[in-house]
Amino acid sequence: MKKGGKCQSTILEKFLILFKGVMSVYDLVLKNGLIVDGTSKKPYLGSICIKDGRIAEIITEGDYDANKVIDCKGKVISPGFIDLHQHSDAVPLNDVEPQSMIHQGVTTEIAGNCGISLFPANDESRDEILKYFTRTVEIIPKDSSLRINNIIDYAEETKKHSFPVNIGTLIGHGTLRGVVVGFDDREATAEELQRMKDLLEFELKNGAYGMSLGLIYPPSSYGRLNELVELSKVIRDNKGILTVHMRNESDKVVEAVDEMLQIAELSGVHLHISHLKLIGKTQWGNSQILLDNIESARQRGCTITCDQYPYEATATGIAALVPGWAQDGGNAKMLERLKQKEVRLLEDIKTEMEKRGGANCVTISSTLGYIPEFDGKTMEEVAQIYNLPPEEAVVKVLVECQGGALGIYHSLDMGDILNIMKDMNITIGSDGCDFNYQMDFDPHPRSFGTFPRFLQIVREHNLMSIEDAVYKMTGLPASIINLSDRGILKIGNIADITVFDAEEIEDLATYMNPTMKPKGIYHVFVGGVASIINGEQTENRAGKISLNTN
User: Fold this and answer.
1) Is the dihedral of CA 323, 325, 328, 332 positive or negative?
2) What's the CA gap between 143 and 94, in Å, rounded?
């Protein structure tokens, strides 16, 4: 009787397995890979089954039936990487093919960082906001006549274009202030502050993930403590985040961190410090002071996270060398002051340039077509060509480029980068743009290799386990912005997936030749749709505008 019963049970089990297989024909199975699920849990060998754009099953053994099977033996199956610090706001508005982020394994980007976004806007502020956006961001809308006033307009306009990566956005405080207060260095009135709060709440309720501060960029830098705290309370109440490019990242970086910790404590907002770093040799070696101060605030009850890019050079507009007081009133006023070449202005530019390493450490990445022969030259080389002191060469370049030149600043220390990188509350953010590989200028390589470079550094320096490294690029950023259905490989989640070789992955982009594809990224899927297969981009464009629904 026992033998017969066992036989009947075996037949029944086989029938159930066969029945399940018939009922579950998957669209795609990624089989036999090392599953690193984005939670920091120990990896395991298995297969990911995808159906209707979501993860339908995760199996470690047994049969399945699928329309397509990709063997991932020897490779990591990971959630798609999430880049919390992007400036690709204009990418889904243009027809140029974006390539650099999907080839890194990135499947979701958050734009609108550093206080700079394309909206909110109105007819009175639109032109000045576009100039403000152009001075710092490397991809701009090709159609300058677009009337995008808010996130609803943005989401609607992007439907006219296709793009490979999901894009969400923050609201730039500088843009918000520019619409309401203007570009003057003054305190907002009570009425203006209330209007900023109302506009911000509208954007948050309609899908923005939070607000970003750009406290080195006017007009965001003109915001006073009370203004920042009151706006942060609106973000808190709408379950968003406050990100910040701090007021100082060099000689007063400790004070700048303290300012933001104070805002977090007074408002209760989730504070996220962008590209945590220490600029200039006088600050090198002090990263642990920043990390300890931040951790102390966490112990006091604050919610604080950060992001970081794994490079020893920063990048921003050349106008960042111009002091805030000289930018009071907007781009046109700044250009007027530059043309006057006041002694005070020249001294302030010289001082800021020295903080960033000196003229030989400042490279012009793009003059936006105004002086293309200067693209790739250091400010020291430009000064020699002009036969001028470097600070006067800065003025001349900015005037000729209408304030729009972009630069790379070699001013960071690898020791600090590695120390910051080990912190498990710090995610990876490129601070880049989603570029096409056919570029007419050489931007910072972070737009082409940030995420492979991070994994390469982790491997070469044995910084952490592969599961912790993947968590910092997937589960952690998803939790920071409350993406509940992405960032982790689990049944029911959207199938944003990156398959890579942990031993092979490498950033090939350099400062002299940044437009290089990385090694080691084999397959990338966005919503279950194949975007990269065997290292090559497909014709599929499955990216969508990601709206915050929390």
Assistant:
1) negative
2) 8
Crossing angle of helices 414-421 and 446-461, rounded to 10°: 80
Identify which of 544, 550, 548, 480 has the alpha carbon closest to the alpha carbon of residue 167: 544
What is the secondary structure of 251-268 as a DSSP string? Answer: TTHHHHHHHHHHHHHHH-
CATH number 3.20.20.140 is the correct assignment for the domain at 81-312+412-537: yes
pLDDT tens figures, 57-109: 999 988 889 999 999 999 999 999 999 999 999 999 998 899 999 999 999 99
Domain-by-domain residue ranges, the chain?
81-312+412-537, 316-410
User: What's the predicted TM-score (pTM) here?
Assistant: 0.90
Q: Which of 310, 309, 311, 305 is nearest to 477 (CA)?
A: 305
First to last CA, the chain: 58
- In angstroms, the Cα distances linking 5 to 11, 12, 17, 532 are 10, 11, 18, 50
| Tokens of residue 114, six digits | 């550093």
The pLDDT, as a whole number, for residue 11 is 56
Helices (H), 341-413: 343-355, 379-386, 390-400
For a pLDDT cut of 90, what percent of the chain falls above it? 82
Instruction: State the chain's mean pLDDT as an integer.
Output: 93
- Look up residue 145 and give its two tokens: 């006549």
